[in-house]
Every structure is written in C-alpha cells, then in structure tokens.
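The authors assume throughout that readers already know how a fold can be written as discrete tokens. A single example would do more here than another paragraph of explanation. An entry of this sort, consisting of the sequence and the corresponding backbone structure tokens, reads as follows:
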Amino acid sequence: MTQEVAGASSAWQVALQQYDRAADKLNLGPAVREVLRNPKREVTVHFPVQLDDGTIKVFTGYRVWHNVTRGPAKGGIRFHPLTDLQEVRALSMYMTWKCACVKIPYGGAKGGVTCDPKKMSSRELERLTRRFTTELGEMIGPDSDIPAPDVNTNAQVMAWMMDTYSMHRGYSVTGVVTGKPVSIGGSEGRQDATGRGVVYMIQEAAKSIDLDLRGARVAVQGFGNAGEAAARFLGELGARVVAVSDSRGGVFSEDGLDLPLLTRHKQETGSVIGAPRTQALSNDELLETDCEILIPAALEGVITERNAARIKARIIAEAANGPTNPEADDILRRRGTVVIPDILCNAGGVTVSYFEWVQDREEFFWSLDEINARLRRIMVRAYDDVQRTASEHDIDLRLAAYMLAVSRVAEATMTRGIYP
C-alpha cells in the first residue's frame, strides 16, 4: 500500500510530534525533555547470508534502544522490506511509552532486518536470524535487552535467536527472548496476548459509549497474529467481523465472515483474498467500511488526514504501532471517534512477554488462566488510569496515555539523575 510506504518514512516525525504534545502539556523541563527525545543507542549492521542457490546477499539490520531508565530494553524484531532506521527508531520510542503506560518495568527498544521474508525459504530465514543475532553481540541479553516477535517474525524465529545466543554462552539462556515456543521456556498465552489485550481494551471502551458488542460490526486491517486473535475473540463475544485484510488485499461479507474458514484459507493460500462466500475490497476501502469497531493491525501510518473524515467506526483499536498520525487524531476527536492508542491498546503482547521473562528467571511457570487474569487486571487498570487522565484534562485517550507514560519515564530519569 502506498500509505504504508509514506507511513514508514515519516514514522519518526510522527513519534516526535506525539511526544512533543505530551511534553508540552506536562511542561517538561528542557533538560529531561531533550533526554527523552533522543534514543540512547542505535546499531546498524550489514551482514552476509548464503542463500539456498549458493549466492551471498548482504542484508542490513538495526537495533535501537530508546530509553532504559525504567529497566532492560524490550522490543520486537521485524523482518520487512520497508524496515529502515527511522522506522525502528520510532518503534523503540513507542515501546518506551507502552511499557510505562502499563507499568511494566522495561525500557523501549526495537529491531529489524530489511528483507522480504515471504520470498525466502525457512533455511534462509534461519541463517539470516542466526547471523543477525550474532551481529547484535553483547547488546542483547536477559538483563540488558530482550527481543520478541514482531511483523513477519514468530516463535520459531525467537527459538533460533535463543539457541544462537545460548550457543555463544555455552549454556541455555531462555530469558534472552520472549515469544518462544512453550517447549523451550515460552509462556502459555503469549501467542494470543496482543489480540486478547486489544479485546479487553475494546470491552472497556464499549462500556464508556454504551456499545453492545453483540452484533457490533468489526473490520480488521492485518490478519496476522494480533488481528486474527482479536477477530476470533470478538467473534466469541458475539461481534460480527465483516471485513478482514492482509498485505495483498481484503475480503468482506455483510453477514459476517466465517473466521475458521478464513483462517484455513489463508494458511492454504497465503492470503485471505478469494476466500469462499466473500467480496473483495482493498486495504484503503476496509478502513472506510461501515462498522462500529475498526482494528488497524498492520503497519504504521495508514490513518491520515486524507482518510480520517471518511472512517465510520465509533471505536478505533490500534493493534498496530503508529497507525494514526496526529492530524488524523485531531479529525477523529472532533468527530467523536474513540481511538484507543497503540501504547495502551496493543500492550498485551509486552505484558505477557514480561510474564514470560519473569517465569524464565524463576523457572516456575503459571497456568493460562492465571496469565489471562493477570493480563486483564494490568490492562484494565491501565485503561482506567488513562480514562481518568483524559477526563481530568478534557483530552483524548492518546494524549492522556502519553502524558502518563512520559511523566513516569521523566520521573525515573530525574530520580536517577545524570551520570556522572
């Protein structure tokens, strides 16, 4: 999509605009404001990978720590052809605010490799992952920086990262990544955590506007891990998922999509396009679908001042990072649309990643019911904090979430002081 390309190139500027709005409202002092505006560490690596045909290709990868004042760096690894330093830098800042918003004791980081994993074999992806992990060297570790899955990465990629790191150490270090398979120290519930957290937030937002989720129409842009899980859980609550898309396009059914059939179709064909008993629609059309709930769960920068006025949803739940730019936020607020911001809405993933990290360190694992109960408690508490701040200052949920998050990181920064 053209919007995705534009969004990726401007992601850092959007992140700074959102931060500056909160910093202005908080009247942050110039020193701490400047500290929080800049990433702590940025690493760019160029590394060769042997492809299956025997040729060598050099890939470029990135890892950025935005801020580690409140704890170890935490953030996903994405494999995508549009990944660049600007995007990774922005996403690392989002992670700082996300962890602070839900009071998880981590700092923000992000990583990625510029590649098209859909054109690579499993063996090529494994070689790329292991070499990238090695290139990061001493940067990652269970006490310093804990990667996790993101766009086009999954539990298998995390397993390769954990194994590579462990081989260099000479013993198994399960806590170096989260989002691993359960068989090697992963947590129950991690696969669905982001989507489950999104649904918890939608439930709270629906209460605030007296929206009955039974029969509510839902559109999901991005039928990956988070989008699929959110759609599935909303369907279980009685909502009607009418539109879904992936990177190739989307499908629509006024009567509601058959989600199990749609999931099987995507597994078999690689896309939701052409699923039985559906009409085709584009990603742009999906955003403007008649629905009560819109879930942008793909890439950043898809909701802008160009299309915000045509969005009909009453609730926008940001399962993706940075899907809405500040100009669109202003339009949506004037229209009365409830936007559940990314740093709150999709924080279920990092929350259960935190649970996984804790379980690995304790070598004691919790049940799925316990994990889901803890996740709901943390997410609902965070929503209540954000809603209360929004009401007190007569602002939207995004600015309220940013004010809470930035103030917490600023307080930690000032409390620790400037070394030396």
Q: What stands out?
A: The mean pLDDT is 95.
